[in-house]
Specification:
Blueprint lengths: L3 E4 L3 H6 L4 E6 L5 H12 L3 E9 L3 E4 L2 E4 L3 E8 L14
Antiparallel strand pairs: 1-2, 2-6, 3-6, 4-5
């Protein structure tokens, strides 16, 4: 579970759930094969395809000092029909 940070819930990612595609942010140093192996092992599913893209870090400013956050990678994981991943929503109190 080292590679996957958290699941992403945006309008597009919720729409992709209908196509059996799950979206999550992963560590920027992780490879596609590592993430695929981990998802298949942990959730017991079969992965058909994985698409990834790297999102740039956002600019931040504290007084006169300018900086930016770290970039991260987002994966869209497509599963075989009949398989699904349980919801990854944490309960907030």
């Amino acid at each position: 579970m080292d590679g996957i940070k958290y699941a992403v819930f945006t309008e597009k990612s919720i729409r992709l759930l209908g196509n059996n595609q799950y979206t999550s942010n992963v560590e920027s140093g992780s490879t596609r094969t590592e993430i695929k192996h981990w998802v298949e092992l942990f959730f017991g599913v079969k992965v058909i395809a994985m698409n990834s893209h790297r999102l740039p870090g956002k600019g931040r400013r504290v007084g006169p000092i300018k900086g930016h956050t770290m970039h991260y990678r987002r994966m869209i994981i497509t599963l075989q029909p009949g398989y699904s991943i349980p919801p990854l929503i944490e309960k907030r109190t």
